[in-house]
């Protein structure tokens, strides 16, 4: 009876965890393809699940942060969907690859397709250059259903507070890799290993040479002793004769 009660309690606890954690998987989110390094370019996937059983998602609007302007935003073609890119002029032009950029993308909207109940859709976008002095980017998004319902994924999480009901997608930025430093370190290690191998080979060759010389000397000494023994035997015979 006690075992049954424990099993029942465990089942209830597991069910509660699933019920509480379920909605977290249904948020609109952004995921990097590979790494999103500061100051670099990346391909982002905006993942949109359909949260309703009686309606389909028919539109997604993603807003790009104005205070972190991106000079390049290119949506990937998705069968059944049409993307619209909106831009705004900058008060102060940016210089990218030696060229001045006067406007940046502030919004991308996808329409025309459908995300049915129990399904999700990814919306890939190639972006750059990512900010060099920021730890993350927030992309406030709006999801629209064919029954007229609109869900605004625009709430920003606050440190120490519970996750918002409708959090905005957040992209974490990683530190750029020091390829040159890494390569130089690797080359230095390779050089050290090569020097060690060369020293080991030299020492081995010297040892082999010394061993070979010793063997030859012992061989010659053996021959000399042998000849001496033969000569002694001959002299002894002559004397005895």
Task: Report on the architecture of this protein.
- The chain is an alpha+beta fold.
- It has a domain at 24-160: Sandwich (Immunoglobulin-like).
- It contains 2 helices and 11 strands, in the order αβββββββββββα.
- The chain has helices at residues 2-21, 179-240; strands at 29-33, 42-49, 57-63, 72-75, 82-96, 99-115, 120-128, 136-138, 141-145, 150-153, 170-172.
- The strands form 3 sheets. The chain has a 5-stranded antiparallel beta sheet, with no helix packed on it.
- Strand 9 (141-145) and strand 10 form a beta hairpin.
- It is globular.
- Mean pLDDT is 76; it is low at 6-24 and 180-192.
**Percent range of helical residues:** 25-40%
Shape: globular
Strand content: 25-35%
CA-to-CA gap between the ends?
117 Å
Low-confidence stretches: 6-24, 180-192
* Biggest sheet strand line-up: 5-6-3-9-10
Regarding CATH, which class of the domain at 24-160? Mainly Beta
Overall mean pLDDT stands at 76
InterPro entries: YcnI-copper_dom (IPR012533), YcnI-like_sf (IPR038507)
Keywords: Membrane, Signal, Transmembrane, Transmembrane helix
Protein name: YncI copper-binding domain-containing protein
Pfam families: DUF1775 (PF07987)
């Amino acid at each position: 009876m006690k075992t049954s009660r424990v099993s029942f309690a465990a089942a209830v606890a597991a069910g509660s965890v699933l019920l509480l954690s379920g909605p977290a998987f249904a948020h609109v989110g952004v995921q990097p393809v590979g790494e999103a390094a500061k100051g670099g370019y990346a391909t982002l996937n905006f993942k949109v699940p359909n949260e309703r059983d009686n309606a389909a998602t028919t539109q997604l609007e993603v807003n790009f942060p104005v205070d972190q302007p991106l000079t390049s935003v290119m949506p990937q073609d998705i069968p059944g969907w049409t993307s619209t890119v909106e831009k705004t002029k900058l008060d102060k032009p940016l210089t990218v690859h030696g060229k001045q950029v006067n406007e940046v993308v502030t919004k991308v909207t996808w329409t025309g397709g459908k995300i049915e109940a129990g399904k999700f859709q990814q919306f890939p976008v190639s972006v750059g250059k990512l900010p060099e002095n920021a730890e993350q980017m927030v992309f406030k998004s709006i999801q629209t259903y064919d029954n007229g319902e609109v869900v605004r994924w625009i709430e920003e999480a606050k440190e120490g507070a519970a996750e918002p009901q409708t959090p905005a997608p957040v992209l974490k930025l990683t530190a750029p890799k020091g390829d040159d430093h890494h390569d130089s370190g690797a080359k230095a290690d390779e050089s050290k290993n090569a020097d060690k191998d060369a020293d080991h080979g030299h020492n081995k060759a010297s040892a082999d040479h010394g061993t070979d010389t010793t063997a030859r000397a012992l061989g010659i000494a053996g021959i000399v002793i042998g000849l001496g023994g033969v000569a002694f035997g001959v002299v002894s015979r002559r004397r005895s004769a």
